Amino acid sequence: MVKIMLVDDEPIEREGISLMLSKNRSNFEVVAEAQNGKEAVERALTSRPDLIFMDIKMPEFDGIEAIRKIVPELPNTKFIMVSAYDTFEYAREAMKFGIKEYLLKPSKVIEVLEAFDRTVEEIESEKKRVTETKQVNRRLERVHSLIERDFIVSLIMDHVHEFDQGEWDEWLGLELEHKKGFAAVFSFESDKLHPDREEKSRWYRILKQVLHEQSRPSCFIGPLTGFQVPVLVLFTEHEKEDDEIRQDFVRVILHQVQKKIEECRLYAGVGMVVSNVNHFSNSYKEAIYALELVLSHRSATYLVYNERLKQKRKELIPFEVEKELVEAVKKGDMQKGLQMFESYFQSVQQAADFQVKLVQKALEDFFIVLTRSMKELGFDGHIQVGLGQLETTMQIKEVARSQLINITEQLGEWRANGIRALLLQAKEYIDSNYHKAISLEQVAQEIGLSSYYLSKLFKERFQVTFMEYLKNARMQKAIELLLGGNMPLKEIALNVGYKDPNYFSTAFKKEIGVSPREYRNKYHK
C-alpha cells in the first residue's frame, strides 16, 4: 500500500486527484493533505508519505521550496509536480531534486494514472532493493560471525585451515601480521542449576554487544561452549603498557555486562600479549589457567596472567607433557604414550607434593581432558574417568596406566578400522557430490567427525588436502566432459560444481596449464 499526500491550495484540485485515483486504483492510501507549502512540510514530516502530489504556486512558500525542505528529511519520498504554469523554469528546478513527473492543470485522468503508475513502480522497486540489501547484509553479518568463530577456533586448536593468512585478512578486514593481541576467556555462572539454551544465548548476545561497543581494540569472539566464550583482542596501541591494556579491557567488559545481566555472574581469565597472532593458542591456554584460578578461589572476578603466574604454572601443571601424552594416545602410539605417562605422573606427584587425594584428582582431570579429545576425534567408545577408592600413589599409577593402555588399544583399533572406513566414506561422498557446493564442514557432518580432524586425517591418509582432492575430482570430470562430446563450456562448469564459467576457466587453466577451450581443441578428436 502506497502512502500518498496531496498538496494544493485549491480543495477541489485535491479532491479531483483523489477521486481519479480511488476510481481506478486500489493500491494507495491518502495519509495527509495540505493547502500551502508550510503545511506541506509539517504534515510530510509527520505522516512520512511515499508519494506527494505537489502544487507549485501556493501561499506561505511554493511547492519547490517545500520540496527543498522535505527532501533532506525524507530522501526516499517521490514527488509528482502539479501546476497550471507550463514554464521550463519550474521543470528545471524540479529536476534538480530528481523529480521526473510533471502534470499540467487541468490534468486528464489517463495522465494522472500513468504518472502515478510510473512513480509507484519506482517506489516499489526501490523498496524491494532496500529489502534485498538488508537481507544480504543480515546474511553477510551471519557469515562474518561464523568466519570469526572459525578463525578463533582454528587459532585455539592450531587448526590447519584451507584459508591462508592473506585470506583471513581479507575476510576479517585486518592486517593480522602487524597486530599484537591476547586471549581472554569469559565464563558465565548462573543462579539456576540448568539454564536453558535461550537464556544462555541472551547472555552471549549481551557479551558480544558489549565487546563490540566498549572495547577500543578489535575483538574476535568465539562460540559459547558450555559456559565459556574465548575472545581474541588485537591492538596496535603503544601509549599504554600491555598489562594496563589488558586490565582496562577486562574491567570495562565485566562491569558493562554485569549491569545488563542480574541472574548470573561473569568471570574472566586473560592471557599474556603475543606479538604474532599465530601464537594465540599460547595466550588462550594462559587465559584458561587464569580463569581456573579465579573459579577455584573466587576472591576476584578476573585474573590477568603474568610472569609470576607463568612460573607458578610451570611448577604446578605439566601442560606440555600432558599435551604430548594426549596426542600419543590419539594416534594409538602405545610406546610413546606409556613413556609420556611416566613423565606426566612424576610431574603430577611433585606438583601435588605426593598427596594421594591431589594426585588422584589430577589424574581424573586428565581422563576428562582425554575424553573430550576423543569425542572431538569422533571416537564414541566408553572411557572410564574415575579411578575408584585408592590408598597410595602407586595404586593410582597402576590403575591409571591400565586405563590408559585400554583406551590406547581401543583407539588404535578404531583408527585402523573405524577411521579408515570414515575417510573412505568422506572420499566417496566427494566423488558423488563434487558437482554441488560442498564444504569441509558439510562432509564432516555427513560422516560424524569434526571438521578439524577430518581435515587433518584426510591429509594423513590420502596425502592431499580436502580442498585439493575436491578440486582434482572436479578437474578430472571436466576433462572427461571436454573430451567426450560437444557440451558447452558453461554446462561443463555447472556439471562440475562451478556456478561461474569464468571462474571455472581460470581454475582449470591454473591447474591444467591451458584453458578448457584450448584443451578441447588440442585433444578432442
TrEMBL record:
Keywords: Coiled coil, DNA-binding, Phosphoprotein, Transcription, Transcription regulation. It holds the Pfam family GGDEF_2. Residues 113-143 form a coiled coil. Residues 3-120 form the Response regulatory domain. The keyword Transmembrane helix does not apply. It comes from the Bacteria. The modification 4-aspartylphosphate is found at residue 55. One of its GO terms (molecular function) is sequence-specific DNA binding. Residues 424-522 form the HTH araC/xylS-type domain. Gene3D superfamilies: 3.40.50.2300, Homeodomain-like (1.10.10.60). One of its GO terms (biological process) is phosphorelay signal transduction system. This is Response regulator. It comes from Halalkalibacter alkaliphilus.
